[in-house]
Amino acid sequence: MTTPDARLSANRLHCGARGTLAVIGLALLAGGAQAAPDGKDVFLAQKCNTCHSVPAAGVEATVKIEKMKGPALPTASMATDVERQSHVVRQEELIDGKKHPKKFSGSDEELAALFGWLGQLAAEPAPGASGE
Ligand code: HEC
């Protein structure tokens, strides 16, 4: 009499465990794929190059209107002030009393990769970059 019930619940348990394993497997796969976004790819994908050139990487600003342009990156403060810059591009902190014109919409990992890339380039600041 107890057999069908017992089998049923054993079956459920079994399915549950497989389901959990599948979820863990997917999470691992997704985590692996996101582990190392490329900073330059993120910069271009987010269209930061509309307004910012990155001379050290051969990236030109594409906007035609000169006064829309931001400073060439990385600025000198790039290496020392990443935390603040991250808030600026998320529009969580003002820059010169204004919102940064574009809000970074990617993940924290992508933002970290972006600033990691700029930080590396910052070892040699862009010619003409003021850092202010
Ligand atoms: C529409 C034009 C525009 C776009 C697009 C843009 N920026 Fe900017 N950015 C500016 C301007 C203008 C400033 C200077 C603001 C100021 O100093 O008042 C600036 C400033 C900055 C600064 C501060 C530099 C410093 O040392 O003070 C950083 C960092 C920055 N931008 C990163 C980015 C990133 C990353 C992206 C892409 C997600 C991006 N910007 C997209 C116009 C833009």
Describe the overall structure:
- The chain has 132 residues and is mostly helical.
- The chain has helices spanning 3-34, 39-45, 82-89, 108-121.
- Helix 2 (39-45) packs across helix 4 (108-121).
- The longest helix has 32 residues, at 3-34.
- It is globular and about 60 Å long.
- The N and C termini lie far apart (80 Å).
- The mean pLDDT is 80.
- Residues 46-48, 50-52, 68, 70-71, 75, 77, 85, 88-89, 95-96, 98, 100-102, 104, 114, 131 line the site of heme C (HEC).
Please give a quick description of this structure.
This protein has 132 residues and is mainly alpha-helical.
Mean pLDDT: 80
Low-pLDDT regions: none
Please tally the helical runs, counting DSSP H or I stretches of 4 or more residues.
Answer: 4
Number of domains: 2
Bound compounds, please? Answer: heme C
Order of helices and strands: HHHH
Compute the separation of the termini in Å. 80 Å
- Rg to the nearest angstrom? 23 Å
CATH class of the largest domain equals Mainly Alpha
Q: Structural class of the secondary structure composition?
A: mainly alpha
What is the number of strand segments? 0
Sheet-strand content, in percent, reads under 5%
Most strands sheet: none
- Overall shape: it is globular
